[in-house]
Design goal:
480 residues, alpha/beta, Aldehyde Dehydrogenase, Chain A, domain 1, Aldehyde Dehydrogenase, Chain A, domain 2, seven-stranded mixed beta sheet, Aldehyde dehydrogenase family protein
Length: 480
Amino acid sequence: MTAQLTGQKMFLAGNWVKCDRMIEVRDPQDNSIIDTVPAASAEDMMTCIEEAKEGAKIAASMPVHERMQIINAAADYIEKHTEKYARTITREGSKTIREATKEVARCIQTLRISAEEARRIHGETIPFDQMPGSENRVGYYYRFPIGIIGAITPFNDPLNLVAHKVGPAIASGNAIIVKPATVTPLSALLLAEAFAEAGLPSKVLSVITGYGNEIGDVLVTHPAIRMISFTGGLEAGEEIARKAGLKKLSMELGSNSPVIVLEDADLEDAVESTVSGAFWAAGQNCLGVQRIYVQESIMGAFQQAFVHCTKQYQVGDKQSELTDMGPLISEKEAIRVENMVNEAIGKGAVLLTGGERNGAFYSPTVLTNVPDHCVIAKEEIFGPVVLLYAVADLDSAIQKSNDVDYGLQAGVFTNDVRKAYKAIAKMDVGGIMINDSSDYRIDAMPFGGTKKSGLGREGIKFAIEEMTEQKVVCFKLSSC
């Protein structure tokens, strides 16, 4: 299939703008050029921020019903053009057409929830007379928008993760500037198209395409930006935190997600859930199952079933409805994963299936007996590789699960509610899925982690809390 290059424009403060320099967007499946997008300059970003100052005032003055109407209209537009959005996600990224279609559906839901949460930005009354001498005071607090939000988004969910920043920002009356991943900018531009069609006032939203080292620092360091919402890698997150200065930070920085399977679990369900959780989007998923701790008494049966199910996974053309898994985002990333696997095998790990690379494709891979000192055991793989470990009991599984620097989500398979609650209490993560893999999420729930997995929480209601501040109002009453 030959792509027709249209030469996209970026969305600067409500206007579609060209640049002299362009960036090629390539399909990782065959490295073909899909389209081009502008390579914005630092000056472009400065212009955008100046426009967003006015946009923040416009957004803050929008009544709630207008915010709701615009967000819902954007969702309607995306729903009407679902196939276009899904094909774009598939072409520029790693997802299969089935995975991309699900992402579009989730984006629509994210926006609709954002519209609903706009009406629920509440405050509370404050009993000032709890303090002696304040008997003649009454008041309350309410939440107000913080101003301009800078959003930096990753390649692995190029539409819905952008919506998770844009939807709550607009719902809460803020302006927002999005810098999407350089390799997957087209989906973010399509989201901007939906809001433009929905009648969002100019200057409230910008989607600026370009290289992070040229425009990222301007966005991160500018004092007019009151919050940075970042989803990406740990090193980039730490660099942003060092540079950002006095502003709010919300960060989701990945994980090394564990799943525990105990001997009383439904084995078939555990296998099916963890295989899907490990290899969804070619494993390029912050919630992806990376480490599975299986009780020794069922390890043999679980391993056999897991490897069998993994071997059934269909790897190939992303556009085919029959394909389960496509390529990684680039051949460079596939080589990185290949090197991590080879290092583990060189140190004694046993390869049960997979371990083969063809360009950007890397086969679904299962390892066991992985030494603790291997990089792949401690860091985020972000690829289609899962590690199996036998453990004596729940206590051992919890200890090993916690023995990494990350803590985003975990899964526990058991039919013993006491064991489930023990895991809930003892596991150091932001979310625990009982009888499901770590890869389960709905867009309305609080989402974030502990340790180096990030700061703050996403999930629409909780993102809105991050994107607003409380203002206290107190009336001193005259004596009656």
